[in-house]
Amino acid sequence: MANMPDPAHARRDGSTGDGPAIRLVQSSSLATLVRREIERMILSGDLPGGAKLTEAPIAEQLGVSRGPVREAFRALEGSGLVHVEKNRGVYVRQISVDEADQIYELRAVLDEFVGRRLAESATAAQVRELRAIVERMETASANNDVDAYLAANLDFHDRMVELTGNAKLLQVYRRLVNELHLFRRATLQQGGALPVSSREHREIVDRIAARHAAAAGRAMHEHVQASRARMHKLCDPAPNSDAPAARRGARSRSAG
Question: How far apart are CA 172 and CA 110, in angstroms?
Fold first, then answer.
């Protein structure tokens, strides 16, 4: 695939080198690699919400046939990143502020469960792993690198849910995260958001390490609610404005 990036870059931990790249190619189908590249373009904002995705141009861009692209579209629909309109085509998902609100409410409940569970079950090695991801976030924050911060943020929450050992929860959670991704990127770009967010993550890990289940769950719940508040600050920046009108205007913003 002429324009496909180094497959090693598809790893969430950012590792490079021939070993991981070879293993990824050996373990992944062509459709999987295509899906990961289209997913990367959506999550990075290269393909904005509402954008129409057409098989032929994407296949040509990635240097593949249309078959793997078609298969990738089906997988991306299942993960909540695109939707198919009959007789019209495939489009990058768009989510209203009201729907994002509902997702944040659900995430707050799920994340509280995750925090409690890990405070009860996480090993010392797993806590060190989470601290290492937080350090990546703090480095990205210090460099004001939103892309690196968002990648580490996604890794942190995804890994926490993985560590619960609940495969069904992980499946549901990943779809919710996908649906919120562009809202999250926009909120993290607000001035001062990165240091605040990284501090919230540090406090979450501290409470998990201390085995304080209730405090860890509460910290996770509050973190999601803070993210939700940042979203509303972005969409309704003027406190005295007509809130319903502002929300209606924000509903066209893309969230995944």
Answer: 10
Long-range contacts at 119-127 (CB < 8 A, ≥ 24 apart)? 119/207, 119/208, 119/210, 119/211, 119/212, 119/213, 119/215, 119/216, 119/217, 120/211, 120/213, 121/163, 121/164, 121/165, 122/163, 122/208, 122/209, 126/163, 127/205, 127/208, 127/209
What is the pTM (predicted TM-score) of this model? 0.71
Angle ∠(74,76,78) on CA atoms, nearest 5? 75
User: Phi/psi of residue 185, each to 5°?
Assistant: -60, -45
Structural domain that includes position 62: 7-92
State how many domains the chain has. Answer: 2
| Distance (Å, whole) CA 143 – CA 207 | 26
Instruction: Say if residue 129 is in the same domain as residue 11.
Output: no
Radius of gyration, alpha carbons of the chain = 19
Task: Dump pLDDT digits (tens) for 38-88.
Answer: 988 887 778 888 899 999 999 999 999 999 999 999 999 988 889 899 889
